[in-house]
Amino acid sequence: MPNENGVDAQAVLGAAKLGLWRGEFEDGKMVRLYADDMMNDLLGTDARMTPEERCSFFATRIHPDDSALFEDYVSKITEVPTEIVYRYIHPQRGEYLVRCGGSRDPAAKDRVCILGVHRDISDIVRLEKARFAEKRLAEQNITLRKEQEQKELYYRELLDAQNCGLMVYTYPERKIIHMNAEARRIFHVSGIEQMQRELRTKLLRAYYPDPTTPERLHNLRLEDGAVDYECVLSYGTPDACHIMAKTKTFLMPGGEHTIVTTFLDVSDMVTLRDALRKAQEGSRAKSSFLFAMSHDLRTPMNAIIGYADLIQSNWGSEEVCREYLKKLKEASGYLLSLIGNVLEVSRIESGKESLHEIPWDLRHLEEALDILEGEIAKKQLTVTSSVTLPQPYVSCDATKVQEILMNLLSNAVKYTPNGGHIAMTLGQRPGSQADSTVLTIRVQDDGIGIAKEFQPHLFEAFSRERDSSQSGIMGTGLGLQIVKSFVSLMGGTVTVDSTPGKGSCFTVELPLQQTSPESIQRPKSTVLPPLEGKRVLLAEDNALNAEITSTILHNVGMLVDTAENGAVALSMLQAVPAGYYDLILMDIQMPCMNGYEATRAIRALHDGREGILIIAMTANAFEEDRQAAFAAGMDDYASKPIEPVKLERTIAEALARKREQQGKQK
Ligand code: ADP
């Protein structure tokens, strides 16, 4: 029952499992232990027991491991208030933990009397232990989490430091779990989120050089394993990246697949490998070309030397010599065209070739057949031509268009046996834009034809189906490469349809810009001045060439002085009065002072000699050489080898123009 303060002392003691006791120690007597009800309950003793019995019982129930501790307590408690925690073994409820405290009763004078409390603290200790364990667990969890985070950071940084890309995603969900820095760089994404959004497009834009790779990767999703492969990411875009990859699947315990891909950016290595392969192919092609060239150059050279010998030994019999001379010229012409082709190809390969467009009349193309007349007649070929050019006025690189047609026609002539047929068709159709037109050139023959296996190599440099020794047909395998390069430069196409033994048909289509008939300059018919009596200063370092040119000029009555280089020419010009020479024929490559330098020095004179007509004479036969000659201040240009009629005409025309200019200035 609660007392007047509202507290029920017995209930509190019961709830706290707190028993009250009193111990009495008297010399020569057994120790007596008194207990309240709660104490009896806690000890497992009976209220009816004598205090001596209770004490004896109590002593037997102290946990044997704690008995020494208890004895120590008892010895102290008679002196000072003392507390102990020990284990008590209850006869029914078993072992529990006791907190026991007591102090001496000062009121008892005749004996030692101790008053104390005995409390079952098992629940409290258990609770505290649990709380402590919980706290330790929480602390351990925090430490573990920190360690885990640090570990993760360490591994992430470790993976980010690799120059090998890594990406991990789940399958079939395709949820990206990890991507390292290199993977982000290769895929051009800032993080996993962006990659997740773009994953499908990125995977679709991958190109696999080995066509079996996609299937091997697909199978990987059905079973565990790994696939090594090569792949180009962002294929066809400026971000393209060539990688070597390994994709591996892991089957997770939950049945989920994880797909791990590691990849190495090998773009630089691929570029190097391609360059090396190209260089090796180039050097292979060059070796086979040199081999072919040594044969093909020797053939006309042998003919030239052979006919020269024959002329020498048949000197006097004019008829025979004329025939040999004709053949010698033919061989020289072939040699020259061979050298021209080789130079042309080397220009194409070095990327120097460009278009020089001029207004032109496409009908001039028909003249190609006239050039081949001799060959056609010799082989008794029948040639038909069909020309339908309703808009013949175009702006184009006429030389190259002519060269394309000439190459196709001369091949048709070369590869068609005697008595065969050749058909040339020149046509036109409207272009895709206003004022544009497409020129169609078709050259068909019923000659030897081309094997299907060789057709893919037709347009490669130096490639021939049969070499000259097999076929007896001379060639270098350069003509069609030149055709292909020119056609590509003009944005056109060239195709072939051929059957061995039946013949070939080459078709070229060239998109061209139309122009007006007025834009085409027609040659003016000027009266050319006679060359006889004209004085020429010939600057030429090669004695043989100087002699040939002097002889040609002497033969038309010109007066020739020669200088062996530019510096000598300059001083010879300055040693005579202005106007003494009518013109200078200037070689370009000469020792001491070359043709360009000499021309610039002459143009810089201020003594009336600076305006002299200067015609360049060089073996460098390209447009930029012409441009360089004009840029140095030369008036005209004659290419070597010198052809007498052409040279005479060039000189006469240049003199006429000079005369006209001087007339205008007066
Ligand atoms: P070339 O005629 O100097 O060998 P081309 O580049 O013009 O070089 O031709 C390459 C090769 O293509 C020739 O060697 C020949 O094998 C084949 N070819 C070209 N045109 C014809 C043709 N009209 N008929 C048969 N073969 C041809």
Question: How would you describe the overall organization of this protein?
Answer:
By secondary structure, the chain is α+β, with helices and mostly antiparallel strands. Helices cover 43% and strands 24% of the residues. Strands 11, 12, 13, 14, 15, 16 and 17 form a seven-stranded mixed β-sheet that branches. A five-stranded antiparallel β-sheet has the order 2-1-5-4-3, with helices on both faces. Strands 7-6-10-9-8 form a five-stranded antiparallel β-sheet. A hairpin with a 7-residue loop joins strand 4 (94-104) and strand 5 (112-120). Helix 9 (267-313) packs antiparallel against helix 10 (318-349) and helix 17 runs parallel beside helix 18 (595-603). The radius of gyration is 56 Å and the shape is rod-shaped. The protein starts with 8 loop residues before the first helix and ends with a helix. The model has no long low-confidence stretch (mean pLDDT 89). It binds adenosine-5'-diphosphate. Residues 407, 411-412, 415, 445, 447-450, 458, 464-465, 475-481, 504 line the site of adenosine-5'-diphosphate (ADP).
Helix content: 40-55%
The mean pLDDT is 89
- How far the N terminus sits from the C terminus, by CA atoms, comes to 150 Å
How would a crystallographer describe the biggest sheet? 7 strands, mixed
Task: Name the hetero compounds present.
Answer: adenosine-5'-diphosphate
Number of strands: 22
Radius of gyration: 56 Å
- β content, as a range? 15-25%
Q: Which runs of at least 5 residues are low in confidence (pLDDT < 50)?
A: none
Query: Which structural class best describes the helix and strand composition?
Result: alpha+beta
Apparent shape: rod-shaped
* Number of helical stretches of at least 4 residues: 20
